[in-house]
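User: Modeling request: complex.
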Amino acid sequence: MFRVVRTPLDIHELVRYVTEASAGAITTFIGTTRNNNEGRKVIALDYDAYPEMAEKELRRIGDDAKKKWNIERMAIVHRIGPVQIAEASVMIAVSAAHRDDAFQACRFAIEEIKKTVPIWKKEVFEGGEVWIGTQTGQPLSEADLRQRSS
Amino acid sequence: MFRVVRTPLDIHELVRYVTEASAGAITTFIGTTRNNNEGRKVIALDYDAYPEMAEKELRRIGDDAKKKWNIERMAIVHRIGPVQIAEASVMIAVSAAHRDDAFQACRFAIEEIKKTVPIWKKEVFEGGEVWIGTQTGQPLSEADLRQRSS
Amino acid sequence: MKVTVKFFAILRERVGAAEITKELSDGSTVADLWRALKEEYPKLAPIETRLLYAVNQNYVKPDHALKDRDEVVFIPPVSGG
Amino acid sequence: MKVTVKFFAILRERVGAAEITKELSDGSTVADLWRALKEEYPKLAPIETRLLYAVNQNYVKPDHALKDRDEVVFIPPVSGG
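Assistant: Request completed. Predicted assembly structure:
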């Protein structure tokens, strides 16, 4: 399950999806809107995405994780549009026979999402708004890019 | 929230409990009954606990995690009694401003649970049943024990 | 003095009771109590080497001296999670 | 040939449109398209150095040759999660 949606996320849905009789461990990661960032008082985040490509990249992350670790299932759902304080913008769930694989694959997924998936957040803070990453972000390295475009 | 209960676990309840405006990351771990173990076909697990001391040890794990990492909240709920295939026996949720703390504290919690919390599982498999740990488990080291009883 | 002993998991099955009260002479330690229990319940002997000991919900060493009305639990290797 | 260009996030705000169609001479590359867009929308220039390029939902290099009806997206540093 690899989706970009405009509606609130439901951790039950992801956990149910990855639950397997052959799995002994499920890990999840939930990214939520924090009320502060770099000294700014955050009001909300507003996410935009290139949805078809984002879902394709999320699937690619799932495929890569399955090659690296012995996992059963993975689900990633990213919300776009406005996400209020303490609401979830992204949820990841991974099931595996053993917990080490589940933890590592879950961590891998969120790190990859932040590097390669075409989703952007605008931070709406007291006194202004800013597209995060555009000011300070680094693009993929040449090596990453070669890998991606192969 | 550190509890030992006899009823099915609800990931929503834990996630809701740890959700904080100042947190940007929530990690969870769910331990589920796997349908096989060391070549045996598992029918169910049946957990027993010394409940008052188990809850005390779970709280101790939460306190230790707060000393080691910059986390906001932690919840651990362990179910006892029979737990069927694919059902959850334990759920952990951790919130933190940043994901690295949330991941590390969550991993720490499940490793500690398996070492020091007085909870035991009996595996009911095709052809018999066995208390896990009793045959092969190692007790706490002297160093661990000194720390615990101080 | 009298102490309460609670049994869990494999120990409860071996003893056939969840809780007993035991009369001990003053100055008895956790190890003394365990020796007395083994005599009463010989099935306990095989799991001896892997036990931990809790008194009033704190882990203690086997030479810990018991007091009247203590709650003692012998803890086989844990396997929660 | 004609290609479709979709804009997201900061680029959409700078351009003021989510999608445009652009007429290009045959053999044009992604870099050529970007140069043409910068002339049309000067506000795009400041973010140039950090862009990635996607054609038909695959990352490509700037010297990638475009074909008729390609879907092109210029991708500023991502910040999902």
